[in-house]
Amino acid sequence: MKQYSIAEIMNFLPHRYPFLLIDRVVELVSGERITALKNVTINEPFFQGHFPGTPIMPGVLILEAMAQAGGILALDSMPEELRGAVIYFMGMDKVRFRKPVVPGDQLIFEIRALKQRAKAVKMAGIAKVEDNIVAEAEMMASFGEKK
């Protein structure tokens, strides 16, 4: 079981502020599953317009954060010599939003690998606040060339 800090996450993902949406990996089992978190604060730039007076985290950004957690799992699961490839979000299925996410929430992402091939991966994930599922989806991604 592995854990990653924000500095280590930045070694996996090319995303940077304000689009890096994972703060910490609390548990990762290569090739199997990841648990990651995001602390949602009122300082997030999207809250200025979504929605003034009633800040709600956009669902697409919850999915993006799930995909980023899945990307860390996929890249960590690759052989060392293949790491460094760019991973592209290809699609999502079975997406459901259950409850709004607001400032002060801590999003916990639980992603598990369903299939991984040389150039593609399929994962299933849920996003939770406390013990309540707020979103779920199946996601597909493909690997680009190693930089």
If strands are numbered along the chain, what order do they take across the biggest sheet?
1-2-3-5-6-7-4
Structural class: alpha+beta
Q: Roughly how much helix do the residues carry, as a percent range?
A: 10-25%
What are the secondary-structure elements, in order, as H or E?
EHEEHEEEE
Q: How can the largest sheet be summarized?
A: 7 strands, antiparallel
- Share in β-strands: 35-45%
Q: Indicate the low-confidence ranges by residue numbers.
A: none
End-to-end separation in angstroms reads: 27 Å
Q: How many extended strands?
A: 7
Number of domains: 1
CATH topology: Thiol Ester Dehydrase, Chain A
In CATH, what is the class?
A: Alpha Beta
CATH superfamily label? Hotdog Thioesterase
Q: What is the radius of gyration computed over CA atoms, rounded to a whole number of angstroms?
A: 15 Å
The oligomeric state is single chain
CATH architecture identity:
Roll
Description:
The structure is a single chain. With 147 residues, the chain is α+β, with helices and mostly antiparallel strands. It has helices at residues 6-12, 59-77, and strands at 2-4, 24-29, 33-39, 85-97, 106-116, 120-129, 132-146. It has a single domain (2-146), classed as Thiol Ester Dehydrase, Chain A (Roll), CATH 3.10.129.10. The model has no long low-confidence stretch (mean pLDDT 94).
Short structural description:
The protein is built from two helices and seven strands; from the N terminus they run E-H-E-E-H-E-E-E-E.
